[in-house]
Design brief:
It is built from 34 helices and five strands. The protein is mostly helical. Among the domains are: 50-129, Leucine-rich Repeat Variant; 151-241 and 307-402 and 427-441. It has a three-stranded mixed sheet with strand order 3-4-5. Strands 1-2 form a two-stranded antiparallel ribbon. α26 (515-533) runs parallel beside α28. Keywords: Nucleus.
């Protein structure tokens, strides 16, 4: 075979015939495959262990969806969690750790809808979870909150304030334990550090207010939102302190190292040697048993960051940062930035911002008083901030609220779109009172000459407000009386204190006062009287207004009767206190009103409860004179059964002590009970 023929045999061309299939290639791939259905009955069966919600998802399914990339899936998971936990509350205790960690993680989610659903779920959980339950997981919640407050996104920062509101409402004590970190976050929300070359050499970097045009609200409104939360946070810190004090009129505090235990003495039991009185144990000199203290090792390990605002250094450092920022906020909202014709009138938003500024400063001032070195702190505050406060705060004092009202075309304010009028409401009063509280706390008797200018402004404002205070509520009256008391302590001469007492008495004489307001006024006058009575006889100068107030108390008690038992008890306590001090004006008034108080039909003695009756019977001992008519009234009260038998026996014992048969070696009172009247009372009562 030739070579050419052999080559043709190797590469023969296959001829295809019509109607027949094309033969498969030797290297062709088989693409055929077979499928079979797989059925898993267990997957379609409902879980009998974990409860499910309406979408047949249990707690594990919902929590796993929290990690999904889709915002819609996470939003539905949060809604499903709220639905499931509201139907089955016991699931919260079983999966508390996972629920808290997953919900806190979405505080910084990019989607606003997811963050809003997380806030609503957190608010629901706060009503179901106690503080001791969430305490082990609260550091994680606080860390996520701090991350949200310092986030670069404006929307996340705004929603972090909503989370803060929920936690402040439900767990204030747990939140204030991390005060140092959160306070720094508050500062960073409204300001930034100055990093100029001139300031790099300083040890402490200063802060300045920041402006972000990308926010949905104005810079002033954003600062108002942040400062409102800061004020709530500081209020929680103040309330959580061991030494709680109310605003305004303060009562005298005992030594923190002693506690007083009131003791009830029954003279009958004591006379029979059946009751022993331990004066040392009940005299206020015994140290507190439940005093809080730390071992030296623990106290030395604790650093200043853990102490929070309870440390004087931390408090001073925060004050140095926040006060300049607050002054800048005040300057932006102050009337000086408005039109000159407005004077000291404020718009509503400016008034709210200025109120928050003063409230924060007032709370910081209260925190400074909690330290042992109180005088040093007050001196430090005065040296650093009094000049700025006088220049900015007292410049337009007192402030009033400005009303912006739209008028029709036909109006007296022609050509003006808005007509500015001074508000008749008392909304602006809280601003002025807070400012008075702050400024008066910086003054003292030693600095009276230097501060006389702005103190006179505050004294005039307080006097005018008290004289026209018919519409004041109890909170405003409490703050007013607190400022009044402080002014009286700074300048204790009669020329300065008498107009203030007269202004308070003018308010006291008004009718239809609320019961809390009347109570506050009574406490104020009682405290002023006790303070005046503690002075020595040489420097004592009786206030005419105070004497007039004391003289009117018995008549008020006779008129009040059973209309307000609580107020009657307060009047009786004050009358008893003044009578035991032999106040001449009160004893004369009590003598004149005794027949009405001890009337057997409509007198206060027979109308009031048993405890008040006992105090009224004790007042009989202090009456200057016991005439036959009064003894007859008392006898009828005993005969008619309007008093208990024990109280009647007490009355007989008091009258016996006032009679000549008591065996006094010296004459105690000038007008003792007439013997004939005394025997007449005894026989009339015994026969009855």
């Amino acid at each position: 075979m030739t070579k050419k023929r052999k080559h043709q045999e190797d590469f023969q061309k296959v001829k295809l015939k019509v109607g027949k299939k094309k033969p498969k290639l030797e290297n062709a791939t088989d693409t055929t495959f077979k499928t079979k259905a797989i059925q898993i009955p267990e997957q379609l069966r409902e879980d009998g262990v974990l409860p499910t919600q309406n979408r047949k998802l249990n707690i594990k399914d919902l929590l796993s969806q929290m990690h999904h990339y889709s915002p819609g899936v996470k939003h539905n998971a949060l809604l499903g969690l709220k639905d499931l936990l509201s139907q089955y509350p016991f699931v919260i205790d079983a999966h508390l750790s996972n629920i808290i960690s997953e919900v806190a993680a979405v505080f910084t989610d990019k989607d606003s809808g997811v963050r809003g659903a997380a806030v609503h779920l957190l608010q629901f959980l706060a009503s179901k979870i106690r503080a001791e339950q969430i305490a082990p997981f609260f550091p994680l919640v606080s860390a996520h909150l701090s991350s949200a407050m310092t986030h670069i996104s404006e929307g996340i920062q705004e929603d972090s304030l909503k989370v803060l509101d929920v936690l402040l409402e439900a767990y204030p004590a747990l939140l204030t334990d991390r005060s140092i970190i959160l306070l720094k976050n508050f500062v960073e929300l409204i300001s930034h550090q100055q990093l100029s070359k001139r300031l790099k050499s300083r040890e402490k970097l200063s802060w300045m207010l920041s402006v972000n045009p990308n926010r949905r609200v104005t810079s002033q409104q954003w600062r108002l939102n942040v400062l409102t939360r800061l004020k709530k946070f500081l209020q929680a810190v103040v309330d959580g302190s061991s030494e709680t004090e109310d605003e305004g009129l303060q009562e005298q505090k005992d030594s923190p190292h002693s506690v007083r235990n009131p003791i009830c003495i029954s003279w009958k039991v004591h006379a029979n040697n059946q009751q022993h009185i331990q004066l040392f144990e009940n005299g206020g000199l015994r140290p507190k048993i439940n005093s809080s203290f730390r071992l030296r090792s623990l106290a030395s390990v604790m650093d200043s960051a853990e102490k929070g605002l309870s440390s004087a250094e931390n408090l001073k450092g925060f004050i140095e940062i926040i006060i300049p920022l607050l002054i800048e906020c005040w300057i932006e909202a102050s009337p000086a930035q408005s039109a000159p014709i407005l004077g000291n009138l404020l718009e509503s938003e400016s008034q709210q911002l200025m109120q928050q500024v003063l409230s924060i400063i007032h709370l910081l001032w209260k925190l400074t008083k909690r330290h042992d070195e109180t005088y040093k702190m007050e001196l430090w505050l005065r040296m650093n901030y009094l000049v700025d406060f006088k220049h900015y705060f007292m410049r337009h004092f007192p402030y009033s609220l400005q009303e912006t009202v739209k008028h029709k075309k036909k109006d007296s304010c022609k050509g003006n779109k808005y007509c500015m009028t001074s508000s008749n409401s008392v909304d602006h009063l809280l601003l002025n009172l807070t400012l008075c509280d702050i400024m008066v706390s910086l003054a003292s008797t030693a600095t009276l000459q230097m501060d006389s200018g702005w103190l006179d402004m505050i004294r005039k404002f307080v006097t005018d407000t008290l004289q026209d205070g018919s519409k004041l509520n109890s909170k405003q009256v409490n703050r007013l009386l607190g400022v009044t008391w402080r002014l009286m302590q700074i300048q204790q001469n009669k020329v300065a204190t008498e107009p203030l007492i007269k202004a308070v008495y003018t308010l006291y004489q008004q009718r239809n006062l609320l019961f809390p307001v009347r109570t506050l006024l009574l406490k104020f006058f009682s405290r002023v009287y006790q303070k005046e009575d503690m002075r020595t006889q040489r420097i004592r100068s009786r206030s005419k207004v105070l004497s007039r107030w004391l003289a009117g108390l018995p008549q008020q008690l006779a008129l009040l009767g059973l209309k307000n038992p609580e107020l009657s008890n307060q009047l009786i306590d004050i009358i008893h206190s003044a009578a035991s001090r032999s106040n001449k004006e009160l004893l004369q008034s009590l003598q004149a009103t005794a027949a009405r108080i001890y009337d057997p039909l409509e007198g206060a003695l027979v109308l009031l409860p048993a405890e008040a009756q006992r105090r009224l019977v004790q007042l009989v001992y202090f009456l200057p004179c016991l005439p036959a008519s009064l003894l007859a009234c008392l006898s009828r009260c005993c005969i008619m059964g309007r008093m208990s038998s024990d109280l009647a026996a007490t009355l007989i014992g008091i009258l016996h002590m006032r009679s000549s048969f008591a065996g006094w070696k010296c004459q105690v009172q000038d007008n003792s009970v007439n013997d004939v009247d005394y025997f007449s009372f005894l026989f009339s009562t015994l026969i009855g």
